[in-house]
Amino acid sequence: MVTLIVVAAVFAVGYLLSISLHPFTNCRACKGGSRHRGAIYSYAYRACRRCKGSGRQLRFGAQLLGRNQ
Question: What is the pTM of this model?
Fold first, then answer.
């Protein structure tokens, strides 16, 4: 039982450290590319609506901790 608690605590500290160092992940919609290509004219593109063209999204844990940068 104690071992389980220690492992969970180590995991939680590691996850919090990871969130503080790397709060962003690739956007799921554009996969970090920040553009959506046209189906017919493939040279045409628009900015991703989900990430507004940045190519990144805030990770779930960072959202819970209030990191809105």
Answer: 0.67
